[in-house]
Design goal:
By secondary structure, the chain is mainly alpha-helical. It has helices at residues 11-22, 32-39, 42-51, 59-66, 77-104, 112-118, 134-147, 150-165, 167-175, 180-190, 222-225, 260-277; strands at 29-31, 196-200, 205-207, 210-212, 217-221, 278-283, 288-289, 298-300, 302-307. The chain has a single domain (6-307), classed as Cytochrome P450 (Cytochrome p450, Orthogonal Bundle), CATH 1.10.630.10. Bound molecules: protoporphyrin IX containing FE (HEM).
Amino acid sequence: MPRNGTGEIPPPLEIECLKILWTLGEANVKDVRQALTERRNLAYTTVMTVLDRLARKGRVARRKVGRSFMYEPVLSREQFEGGVAAVAEFKDYLNHIISRRLRDAAHDPAEILSTLIGASAFAGESAQGEQLSKLELIHNCIFLLNAGHETTTNLIGNAVDLLIRHPQAMHDLRGHPEAIETAVEEFLRMESSNQLGNRRAGKDTMLGSFAVAAGSYVHIGIGAANRDPAQFPEPDRLDIRREANRHLAFGTGIHACAGMSLARMEAQVAIGRLLARFVRIEPAGTPLRGNRARFRGFKAYPVSFRRYVA
Ligand code: HEM
């Protein structure tokens, strides 16, 4: 997918965003994070659409999987058991639709699930090269849903927070919507929604002056790297036109984020449309941080909006 400017944004994403924004009344106090990400849920709807365009059932199970606290280092018993149950339910659902696709030989090239089924061991002669087992296929679907849901939800929430804390930047971006691409890169840099990266050393390695023994786990502070003064002049300053913004919000190398174009596009549409629709966006209560180790974002962010008067 190309790194989109507004002209290339596919209409369905824009329409979904407009529908969500339309439901926000004038000067009402709403939770902006919920509005754009939870209630009608732009990030969730988008990732589900690319994953599985046909299925409309199993929504509840999929929503639960999306909140299963994956990747948290410490879980309560309730979170753990809820997550395990949601994953089991979602696996049943995926098994069901995979069987249906195989039975009907339905293939939609625009849909990731169809493509993954086509690359699986049980897809028959059509599968080329390295093939996925059924378990791998199912877990890739679950991974995709999680990878593309909470991260983008938080990117949109963090962007609104940054703009509220920097009214001059909000004013500037509203007057110059063409700056949305560099602005979203800056939001990604300053408030990376995924704060941690992980690697395991395949062999003895020197990282700068540190010796990393083969087999060691390495946890990388993405948020810290993105504020490195050696890489970013005035790293704590929000600059919506920052150029040469080589942030690591999407990781790097062979395993760099597979959904980065989609995430960028969603944030560009959501923030661009929000600013175009509302002349005033102000806090209306105390934001509640998520306090997660890996995912940086908010549990709630009450905001008041005022629409443009025609
Ligand atoms: C703001 C939104 C997002 C952020 C900050 C983010 C961040 C990341 C990061 C840091 C990684 C690890 C990269 C590495 O290890 O070097 C990753 C991997 C991945 N992401 Fe994202 N991501 C986002 C959205 C998405 C979306 C929308 C999708 C799919 C719809 C997605 C799918 C993936 C996949 C499949 C991988 C694994 C790639 C691999 O291991 O080869 N991500 N992402």
